[in-house]
Design a protein that fits this description.
Layout: E1 25-34, H1 37-43, E2 53-58, E3 62-70, E4 82-86, E5 92-94, E6 100-104, E7 108-110, H2 117-121, H3 124-137, E8 144-147, H4 153-164, E9 168-173, H5 178-184, E10 187-190, H6 195-202, E11 207-212, H7 217-225, E12 226-234, H8 239-242, E13 247-248, H9 255-266, E14 274-279, H10 283-290, E15 298-302
Parallel strand pairs: 2-5, 8-9, 8-11, 9-10, 11-12, 12-13, 14-15
Antiparallel strand pairs: 1-3, 1-6, 1-15, 3-4, 4-7
Helix pairs in contact: 3-4
């Protein structure tokens, strides 16, 4: 938990009472909780005015675990069910980096038996972001798609979903991740000054869809890379909507979408890359690793 905004040094491990359970929530014993860049942004105070933080605050929205207690009206789940959730609530306070967490049923879905807990925990926010941004972009079979930050948690799932949809996928990433992108079915392009020319060489007529998961260069180069009538969907910059006529996407909890992603993962259609796993008492170190900005796939904390 943390009691003030700041860097990873404000995090500390504490004992707290078991979480309060509401009528439409379940209490979950956490098997794994995944980290996301937004966690660090929230902890630094970066979303004040958009989301309220109530101190002391426990970080984390992604979780996989087992239901140990059910609310008054939760027919979707029973004690003993294994679930995954994008457990985002209206305020930042009681997150998933804990031994137990109260999860609203509207944010959860059952975890397929064959999907490991660590991979399941890495799926909700990243998977929902990828799925919902692709849907909003209007991506269709046969499209040529440019995925920015394609080796990251969101981008790697977006690549796999786009390939599964029958699109040709080009992905930006550092050169050390190019073989990884090829294994996912994408054609890699390096970040940097040569990005525009390299991407144009692969798609001379332009891209039907640009998916921005990093901002900066992704937004600046989009007008030159989109074909006439093409669409950009961004999770980082509202200019994609306001200036480029595309979509600005803020991921939403959605049980049906999450169940669909879990099924795809269980069947091997998509896979979640877990790059590192940390115990709960090393959560601050896990965030330090995340905040280097060089993570491939997901970082997971296991109580």
């Amino acid at each position: 938990m943390y009691e003030e905004f700041g860097g990873a040094d404000v995090l500390r491990v504490v004992d707290r009472p078991e979480p309060h359970i509401g009528a439409d929530t379940v209490v979950v014993r956490v098997a794994a909780a995944a980290l996301n860049p937004v966690d660090a942004y929230l902890r630094a105070g970066g979303l004040q005015g958009l989301m309220d933080t109530h101190f002391p605050a426990v970080p984390g929205w992604d979780v996989a675990g087992t239901v140990v207690k059910v609310g008054l009206d939760t027919p979707e789940f029973q004690v003993g069910d294994e679930i995954i959730a994008y457990a985002r609530k209206d305020v930042v306070q009681d997150g998933t980096l804990a031994e137990y967490v109260a999860v609203p049923v509207r944010t959860a879905a059952k975890k397929p038996a064959g999907l490991p807990f660590d991979q399941a925990a890495g799926l909700p926010l990243a998977g929902l972001t990828a799925l919902q941004s692709i849907r909003r972009s209007g991506l269709a079979e046969g499209d040529t798609v440019l995925v920015h930050a394609a080796a990251g948690g969101v981008g790697s799932i977006a690549v796999q979903l786009a390939v599964h949809a029958g699109a040709r996928v080009v992905g930006t990433a550092s050169e050390r991740n190019h073989d990884y992108l090829r294994a996912l079915g994408a054609e890699p392009v390096a970040y940097g000054d040569g990005l525009l020319d390299a991407a144009r060489a692969l798609a001379p007529e332009g891209f039907d869809v640009v998916l921005d998961y990093v901002g900066g260069q992704a937004i600046e180069t989009a007008p030159a890379l989109l074909r006439a009538g093409g669409t950009i969907a961004s999770i980082t910059d509202a200019r994609a909507r306001d200036e480029l006529g595309g979509q600005y996407v803020w991921v939403r909890p959605d049980t049906a979408d999450l169940a669909h992603l879990a099924d795809l993962a269980a069947r091997g259609v998509i896979r979640v890359e877990v790059s590192q796993t940390f115990p709960l008492d090393q959560a601050a170190d896990a965030y330090r690793a995340l905040e280097t900005g060089h993570t491939r796939g997901k970082i997971v904390v296991t109580p």
